[in-house]
Amino acid sequence: MNYIRLLLVFLLPPVAIYMQFGLGHHFWLSLVLTLLGFVPGLVYSLYIMASRPPGLSRLP
């Protein structure tokens, strides 16, 4: 996870998820959690960005 994406996770978690995974279920869940409370959205986005490498996430 590079530093720009990490910074973006702390500023706008759903946007960082969108940049890495697109408009999938990870994005929508991150958006809902961020709207309910910033901290749950932040924690979920950090977990997803750290646990799944970019590129491999879009494979079927």
UniProtKB/TrEMBL annotation:
<keyword id="KW-1133">Transmembrane helix</keyword>
<feature type="transmembrane region" description="Helical">
    <location>
        <begin position="27"/>
        <end position="50"/>
    </location>
</feature>
<comment type="similarity">
    <text>Belongs to the UPF0057 (PMP3) family.</text>
</comment>
<keyword id="KW-0472">Membrane</keyword>
<dbReference type="InterPro" id="IPR000612">
    <property type="entry name" value="PMP3"/>
</dbReference>
<dbReference type="Pfam" id="PF01679">
    <property type="entry name" value="Pmp3"/>
</dbReference>
<dbReference type="GO" id="GO:0016020">
    <property type="term" value="C:membrane"/>
</dbReference>
<protein>
    <submittedName>
        <fullName>YqaE/Pmp3 family membrane protein</fullName>
    </submittedName>
</protein>
<keyword id="KW-0812">Transmembrane</keyword>
